[in-house]
């Protein structure tokens, strides 16, 4: 049953001056709020290794942000901004980034009503010869509600990944209220980013330096990675009065078989770095259910966790995924999720969460509320009273889940 939740119940006053518009000089100079079984304390992020249990698995999202924002111009002079969301043709990220002359993407298009059937040319106000040589153009293939399919063509034989590097800009969040700058190319990217595909950074990971990663590994903590490509849906506000009216976008993810096998060790706490890691971890249970009931993994729908009671154990679900991968002789699970985590959700795999402070009336704030058993307002009041910085470039928190399994 879809929960009846008013998004207005998850509002708080966030003064503009509390939004961090730029990153700090060092990643780990940020502050860290610790929430542990109702107790709230303030620390420095560089202290985080001492809060990670020795007998635990720490999960990082190693997706890499691509410069997916492109500016084009009509013959009339009107500017059209195109924001690449996910590949259409080819449909695989690694294949589309290797294309050398044309490709199609699902995009968010600014001023799309002003774009009829004409071919757009990429803006090059500084007459950059490298940009000019590419001759990047865009054609509108179809519209589908909030998104459009756009075909890009270019010259010179460069892979599309290089085209984005030359012509695109880093898609920093709109609430920063500024254009992307050189510093964003480095700092709006985690230290361990590896696989291209995200249009938004998994921002909880922005705080980690090699010092913290080495210290955590030195405790014997299992450090694992998943890859969920973050879509622009993370920026979209909830416009409906009830959360039931909000539509989550599909985000593809990849999880290694060896990691799923490690998750079967229920003696270890699971510490997720970022809400994207949580959404991937918790989607695994429902992927396992589809393997049990249908013999194959299926994408996780937005409201699947709330539609009925599930009698399978987490162990049974994970073992079903492993059996499927063994039968397919596959080393990775590739799937997609639209899962929304709201109060009433049952966490089956995540015990602790490292995350930033999120926007009022956002799906991410609903996830936090679900994780801490509804105690989000006390956490956010503490952060506001004690000078914490908010949103993507802001400070961080480490939260112990109200339903921690151990």
Plain-language structure description:
The chain is an alpha/beta fold and 406 residues long. It folds into 2 domains: 7-65 and 187-400, QueA-like (3-Layer(aba) Sandwich); 69-168, no CATH class. It is 23% helix and 25% strand. The chain has a 9-stranded mixed β-sheet, covered by helices on one side. It has a 6-stranded antiparallel beta barrel with strand order 5-6-7-10-9-8. A hairpin with a 5-residue loop joins β5 (69-73) and β6. The longest helix has 20 residues, at 275-294. The protein is globular and about 60 Å long. The model has no long low-confidence stretch (mean pLDDT 93).
Q: What is the CATH superfamily classification of the largest domain?
A: QueA-like
Total separate domains:
2
Question: What strand order characterises the main sheet?
Answer: 2-1-17-16-14-3-12-13-15
Q: Give the N-terminus to C-terminus distance in angstroms.
A: 28 Å
- CATH level-3 fold name of the largest domain: QueA-like
């Amino acid at each position: 049953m879809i929960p009846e939740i008013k998004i207005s119940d998850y509002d708080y006053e966030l003064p503009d001056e509390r939004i961090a518009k730029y990153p700090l000089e060092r990643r780990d100079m940020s502050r860290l709020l610790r929430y542990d079984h109702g107790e709230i304390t303030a620390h420095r992020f560089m202290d985080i290794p001492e809060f990670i249990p020795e007998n635990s698995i720490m999960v990082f999202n190693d997706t890499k942000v691509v410069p997916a924002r492109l500016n084009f111009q009509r013959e009339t002079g009107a500017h059209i901004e195109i924001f690449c969301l996910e590949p259409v043709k080819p449909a695989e990220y690694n294949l589309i980034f290797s294309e050398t002359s044309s490709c199609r993407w699902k995009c968010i298009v600014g001023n799309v009503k002003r774009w009829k059937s004409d071919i757009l040319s990429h803006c090059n106000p500084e007459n950059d010869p490298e940009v000019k040589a590419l001759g990047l153009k865009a054609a509108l293939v179809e519209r589908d509600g909030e998104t459009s399919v756009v075909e890009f063509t270019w010259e010179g034989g460069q892979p599309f990944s290089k085209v984005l590097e030359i012509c695109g800009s880093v898609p920093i969040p709109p609430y920063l209220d500024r254009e992307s700058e050189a510093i964003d190319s480095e700092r709006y990217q985690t230290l361990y980013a590896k696989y291209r595909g995200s249009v938004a950074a998994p921002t909880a990971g922005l705080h980690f330096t090699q010092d913290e990663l080495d210290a955590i590994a030195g405790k014997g903590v299992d450090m694992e990675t998943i890859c969920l490509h973050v879509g622009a849906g993370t920026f979209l506000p909830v416009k409906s009065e009830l959360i039931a009216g909000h539509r989550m976008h599909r985000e593809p993810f990849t999880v290694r078989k060896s990691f799923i096998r490690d998750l079967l060790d229920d003696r270890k706490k699971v510490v997720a770095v970022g809400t994207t890691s949580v959404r991937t971890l918790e989607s695994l249970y429902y992927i396992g259910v589809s393997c049990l009931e249908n013999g194959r993994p299926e994408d996780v729908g937005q409201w699947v966790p709330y539609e009925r009671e599930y009698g399978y154990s987490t162990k049974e679900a994970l073992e079903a995924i492993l059996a499927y991968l063994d039968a397919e002789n596959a080393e990775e699970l590739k799937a997609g999720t639209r899962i929304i985590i709201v109060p009433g959700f049952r966490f089956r795999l995540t015990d602790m969460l490292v995350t930033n402070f999120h926007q009022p009336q956002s799906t991410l704030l609903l996830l936090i509320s679900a994780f801490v058993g509804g105690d989000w307002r006390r956490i956010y009041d503490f952060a506001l009273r004690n000078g914490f910085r908010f949103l993507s470039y802001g400070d961080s928190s480490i939260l112990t889940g109200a339903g921690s399994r151990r």
